[in-house]
Amino acid sequence: MDSILVNESKSKNKVFKDKAIGIGAFIGGPLAAGYFFAENFKAINQPEKVKTTWFITILSTIAIFSIAFMIPEDSKFPNQLIPAIYTFIAYLLFKSHQEKEVLKKIESGATYHSWGRVIGAAILSLLITLVVMGIGIFTMIELEESQIASKQYGLTVKHEIEYNSSNLTEAEVDHIADGFIEHAFFDLDTAKYVYAEKAGNTYILYIPILEIYINDQETSRELKILRDKMDAYIKNKSVTIKLAVDSLDNVVETIE
Fold it and tell me: What domains sit in the chain, N to C, each tagged with a CATH number?
């Protein structure tokens, strides 16, 4: 019992300095910064701020990584700026909310936490963040895959349209297929696959092509004509065709 009280007393007599919070936040993310702030608030006798600190930390972590995932791959925004930004914010928050009391604590005989404690807490925070993110991403992928549906069209040649049932109705997919049949894209020669999704008032139709047809003028011309015909056929919606190679993520040409 006495040893527990001694350890707790030692912990309250140590604080994290500005450089430790900056470096720790850069390595371990906002979760690490929240931990350092919470421990400092305990040490400077402001325990009422600990719960608020953790609440803001969790919300900030969710917001930061949500924004990071929403940044398009072709965006010119450098992703490496994100940790630099939240590290700078953590540094400013320490300066404005804790530095004065931390320095008073040091003057009264307290010491700074060791760099081993800083780096260890940062790495642990990073691991926790990665595990939680991994679980979240896996759950989202599983949920999205569970909503993927497909329909086939044609008696002898089976054409397929795959779509997310939470994004498109079956009636909309049937209408898209009718347009493909009307304009002979869904023909009696070669089975074709299309992935369809809706963004606002636009149907985005992903059509896989072979790598040899990248930048092929004749292929582009034919698909531009198809897009124009589909755009005219489908009322109240515009049509965009995206040509993809190997996977739907690898879009090599967008026809609008």
Answer: 2-145 (no CATH), 148-255 (3.30.300)
